[in-house]
Amino acid sequence: MRQYYYTVSSLPALKFEEEPAFSVEDFLEACAVELTAEDYDYVTSATIRLEGDTASVPGVATGDPAGTLGEWIRILREFQQQAAVIRAQNLGWETDRLPRPDMRDASIPERLRQILNEENPLKREQGILRWLWSTAESLGIGHHFDRETLALYHLKLQIALRRVRISDSDAGNEEFERQYSQVAEPLMEIAT
Fold first, then answer.
1. Staple partner for 12: which of 21, 143, 161, 163, CB 3.0–4.6 Å?
2. Which residues, at least 6 apart from 64, have a Cβ–Cβ distance to it below 8 Å?
3. Dihedral sign from CA coordinates of 79, 84, 88, 90
4. Which residue, 149, 130, 129, is CA-closest to 139?
């Protein structure tokens, strides 16, 4: 496996509590300089969200996701499936038809219950992001200068940027006002 000493060592450190000094675009631009095309595709396919189609991640289409990203996808799927079960139970719904999580990680259900029991949606989102961050950190054990390190950096960068974005109360208030005015203006016209 190829090592990317210069690229990895030139990246700014990421901390969950701090705003990153790098944008995703800056990171990918730095990666494009040294990475092979295959490794670049691998790193860019790292995402914190499981969209309906994960076929862009190497190996997913054949049912054998590659390396750390394969493990990341498995953990995210397990987390989502367990969340669906817990939500259904909380609503009193039957859970028989829901996909059953693999349960390779026995800590997920308890951790997820703690997160979902938060009354404040912001705290729930921050809890999920903190869990994603710690998962990415644990997947990085044993990786130092390889593409796995860069893929995990890409994941952590996305997590850190999302945490900053949801924690910005001014931007949140502006977005609320924008959406409220979009809904309220047509209603006011109808009422007059």
1. 21
2. 70
3. positive
4. 149
